[in-house]
Structures are given as C-alpha cells and as structure tokens.
Design goal:
Elements lengths: L10 H23 L12 H6 L14 E8 L2 E8 L6 E8 L12
Antiparallel strand pairs: 1-2, 2-3
Length: about 110
C-alpha cells in the first residue's frame, strides 16, 4: 500500500509571512518616527533673526523655545519665544498670521 507524503511545514508560506511581517514593522517604524508636515521647515538662524529680521519675512522657519507671551488679536497672533540658555536668554517676537494651521504652540506658566 502506498503511503501519503507527510504534510510538513510550508516553507513558501513562512517566507512570505516573514516578508510581510518585516514590511509591517518597517512601515510602523517609519510612520511613528516621521515628522509632521508642519515641522519640515528649516531651523531659524537666531542671530540672523535678531540682527536683520526683515530678510526673513515671507519665509517659513522652525523655532524651538519657551513660549513666554502670547497676544491673540483679530488678525493673528504675536508671540514671544525665549531662545537659548537660562543664563543668557534671547527673546524673539514672532507674528503669526490668522490662517496659521500647522505647528504646535504651548505656553508654559
């Protein structure tokens, strides 16, 4: 009597499963570690902004600092950000237009 071949592990399915698993892990890592679209602007040069801020007008920049003051008006906002160390702080006023939607502004009290 003839015997049936034993059903072993399907190596093709294991390889496809491993590839799908690696792609899902890579996609999850990329999704969790990417910057939001509002943060893809270049970093603002603080010294240039303080010495000649007119040359920066109309451009988009990224600023990281401590939000000190925030004045909300009908046509936009004026905020003051503290940049640099606590021993030698520099304050930068920024005008934010009314239609500003991207970014994150949190004031520390």
């Amino acid at each position: 009597m003839a015997r049936r071949a034993s059903s072993g592990v399907n190596t093709g399915a294991l390889i496809i499963g491993a590839i799908v698993f690696i792609l899902v892990l890579g996609g999850g890592y990329w999704f969790l570690n990417r910057k939001p679209s509002g943060f893809d602007a270049p970093e603002l040069d603080i010294e240039q902004a303080l010495s000649n801020s007119r040359s920066l007008s109309g451009n988009r920049y990224q600023v990281t600092g401590k939000l000190i003051d925030r004045n909300i008006e009908s046509n936009g906002q004026i905020i003051t950000i503290q940049l640099g160390e606590e021993t030698n702080p520099k304050f930068l006023p920024i005008i934010i237009p009314e239609d500003f939607k991207n970014g994150n502004l949190n004031q520390q009290s």
